[in-house]
Write a structure and sequence with these properties.
The chain is of the alpha+beta class and about 140 residues long. Helices cover about 25% and strands about 40% of the residues.
């Protein structure tokens, strides 16, 4: 059994879904894990991780539009000290989640044909985000 741990850093351009599949795959390739699991953990409360379709850009636009409608700015939130997009960002992160676990076989993540890993930035302005990556296996 072998394991490795790293913190991957991503600069976002502000609100949106930022695909990080290639960066995670590149890191996994250096981890020398052939069979096992990869766990990804977002170290932020206003950004999150998700797996979704990466072929049709309309999917990402629809997901973002749905989140904005479900958790609008100006919703009368008590917490607003960091701006009107902060509390909605926390709720969106809670809804979409902060961690993923992905099986690994033959040194590759077992993502489906149309699946990609996304770092969801829920704040308007750009941020530097950190994702802890842990691989465990043989």
């Amino acid at each position: 059994m072998h394991q490795t741990l790293a913190t991957l850093t991503f600069d976002t351009a502000g609100r949106g879904l930022h695909e990080i599949t290639d960066e995670v795959a590149e890191w996994l390739g250096s981890a020398e894990i052939r069979t096992g699991l990869v766990t990804l953990f977002c170290q932020h409360t206003s950004a999150s991780l998700l797996i979704n379709e990466n072929a049709a850009p309309a999917v990402q636009r629809d997901l973002l539009r749905w989140l904005d409608q479900a958790v609008p700015e100006g919703g009368g939130y008590e917490h607003d000290s960091e701006g009107p997009d902060d509390m909605p960002a926390h709720i969106k992160a809670m809804l979409t989640g902060n961690s993923l676990t992905i099986p690994v076989a033959n040194g590759r993540m077992m993502l489906g044909t149309w699946q990609g890993i996304y770092l969801a930035e829920h704040r308007r302005r750009p941020h530097r985000r950190h994702v802890v990556a842990h691989a465990l296996g043989d």
